[in-house]
Design goal:
heterodimer, A: 201 residues, mainly alpha, 2 domains, 54% helix, 0% strand, B: 86 residues
């Protein structure tokens, strides 16, 4: 065989070796990729399986909460009236008056008393119970009479040194009985004949 | 004979480097996919693990149902004891 043929054979062998090396390495890399994708598929399948009932459950929770909101809003409107009811909700959730109640289309945009800002907590409680709390009615468009963010300031002024949990000393209950330290005289008229008015002559 | 030598030179100088270059590119691309897939697998595993708490939504739904039922009962009592506004 001529030398050129030998060189040709050697060159072809080199090309084949390069093909084998790189193709085998590529196959190994692709097998690792396939194994990794199997893990991905398994975990994604877990995600799909775990998240499948979430939509139904959340919808059920929302239905329950919607029913509760409808119930409470309806009862609040019926007991406190529409304006006061919206005012109460707006006092608890500032800005809610702009949206109004869902089941009362006319409730959006009402001018409502600022119950949560003006009323004291006790009055607000009474208002929640359906009784009238006319404090805010005096100046519904005026400045805020009570700051909700510092609502405890007025109360804390009553106790500058801190609100005491209990009184320092409470009067003790009286001790009664035969061995009591203080014996009270027995009334003479007990058991005696009842006094009668003098008979006019 | 000269053509044989020319063929050898082309084979060794042109064809072999081109084959090696192209296969090296394929191998590098295939190997670069492996760590990315492993990262995706890790993220998917973490996401699946995060959703383990999703089963607690069943408890939440039951609790909400019981709470709403209690509120309904309470509201029914208030409806009886409190007069209507109008």
């Amino acid at each position: 065989m001529p030398a050129a043929g030998v060189v040709m054979v050697v060159a072809v062998v080199l090309v084949v070796l390069a093909l084998v090396y790189y193709l085998v390495s590529t196959i190994v890399a692709l097998q690792r990729t396939a194994a990794g994708l199997d893990d991905v598929i398994e975990n994604v399948g877990g995600i799909v399986a775990k998240s499948a009932p979430v939509n139904e459950i959340v919808l059920g929770i929302n239905e329950q909460l919607d029913a509760g909101v409808d119930l409470l809003e309806g009862m609040l409107v019926r007991k406190a009236g529409l304006i006061d009811a919206v005012g109460l909700v707006d006092g608890l959730y500032p800005g809610a008056a702009a949206a109004g109640f869902r089941n009362v289309p006319d409730s959006a945009g009402l001018v409502v008393p600022r119950i949560g800002e003006v009323y004291t907590k006790g009055t607000l409680t009474l208002a929640r119970l359906g009784r009238e709390a006319p404090i805010a009615a005096a100046s519904p468009a005026g400045p805020v009479l009570r700051n909700v963010e510092a609502g405890s300031h007025a109360a804390r002024q009553l106790y500058p040194g801190g609100r005491p949990l209990h009184a320092d000393a409470l009067p003790r209950s009286p001790v009664i009985g035969s061995d009591a330290p203080i014996q009270y005289e027995q009334r003479d008229d007990i058991g005696a004949p009842r006094k009668r008015l003098p008979v006019p002559s | 004979m000269t053509l044989w030598w020319i063929g050898d030179v082309v084979l060794l100088v042109v064809l072999l480097p081109v084959v090696v270059y192209l296969l090296h590119g394929v191998l590098a691309a295939a190997q670069s996919v492996v760590p990315t897939v492993r990262q995706i697998a890790g993220v998917a595993a973490a996401g699946s693990q995060d959703l383990d708490a999703g089963a607690l939504l069943l408890t939440t739904r039951d609790q909400v149902s019981q709470t709403v039922a209690g509120v309904a009962n309470y509201a029914g009592s208030l409806d009886v004891i409190i007069d209507d506004a109008s």
